[in-house]
């Protein structure tokens, strides 16, 4: 436990990452792989909170672009994140990890309402807390949720899990073999260069609260554990370059 670099983390999982190669729905093999990695981290004493997206089930922005009321489309997306959160909870509990799902929109039959002090208490007791339904407000992404919750629970870092991408590049490495990978970026660099790590609201919130972000490839087993133990994996945004 003495080797831990971070004591409390927020892990951000996109909905698309949970879908695997299918691109939609929930891939249970992916869920189990995530649960395995989270378990290896909790066993070192690290407190883990997770924010899940819902893009594998529903995306509000495209629906809004096609004429649906934006607020309605976003609320539907929030419900999609709850489905993902419950699936992740089930996978974690199958590995013996005590877990709580907390939602910004109350649905007491399936999850606890988000209360900051209760969330921190769960974390201190070694439970993995999964934050679902975004911020509870339309027009805000789950990236912004990750930044907001990290600030509220005083997390040491936000870990942005990407599938098959090992950091931040100046262009898409899947299509450009000469794409340059960044080892470290300042928040303002991300905004000025228009890099799509997180949306601008989330980046600004992290910048205002000096919350470091690490973008890494979660498809590689043990990457999560290596990061919390201080190994240089992926791209660091903010924080200390060394």
Structure description:
There is one protein chain. By secondary structure, this protein is an alpha/beta fold. Strands 4-3-5-2-1-6-10-11-9 form a 9-stranded mixed beta sheet, with helices on both faces. A two-stranded antiparallel sheet has the order 7-8. The radius of gyration is 17 Å and the shape is globular. Helix 2 packs across helix 4, helix 6 packs parallel to helix 8 (200-208) and helix 7 (187-193) runs antiparallel to helix 8 (200-208). It has 9 helices and 11 strands. It has one domain: Carbamate kinase (3-Layer(aba) Sandwich), CATH 3.40.1160.10. 38% of the residues lie in helices and 18% in strands. The model has no long low-confidence stretch (mean pLDDT 92). 43% of the residues are buried.
């Amino acid at each position: 436990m003495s080797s831990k670099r971070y004591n409390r983390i927020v892990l951000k999982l996109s909905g698309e990452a949970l879908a695997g190669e299918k691109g939609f729905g929930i891939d249970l093999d992916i869920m189990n792989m995530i649960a395995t990695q989270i378990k290896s981290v909790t066993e070192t004493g690290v407190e883990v909170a997770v924010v899940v997206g819902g893009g594998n089930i529903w995306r509000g922005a495209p629906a809004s672009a096609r004429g649906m009321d934006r607020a309605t489309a976003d609320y539907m997306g929030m419900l999609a994140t709850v489905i993902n959160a419950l699936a992740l909870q089930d996978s974690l509990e199958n590995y013996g990890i005590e877990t709580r799902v907390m939602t910004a929109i109350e649905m007491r039959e399936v999850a606890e309402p988000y209360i900051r002090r209760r969330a921190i208490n769960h974390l201190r007791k070694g439970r993995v807390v999964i934050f679902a339904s975004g911020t509870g407000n339309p027009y805000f992404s789950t990236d912004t949720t990750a930044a907001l919750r990290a600030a509220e629970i005083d997390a040491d870092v936000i870990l942005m899990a990407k599938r098959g991408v090992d950091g931040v590049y100046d262009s898409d490495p899947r299509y450009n073999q000469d794409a340059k990978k960044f080892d470290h970026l300042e928040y303002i660099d991300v905004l000025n260069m228009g890099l799509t790590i997180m949306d601008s609201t989330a980046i600004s919130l992290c910048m205002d609260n000096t919350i470091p972000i690490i973008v890494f490839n979660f498809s590689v087993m043990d990457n999560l554990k290596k990061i919390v133990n201080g190994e240089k994996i992926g791209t660091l945004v903010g924080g200390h370059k060394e």
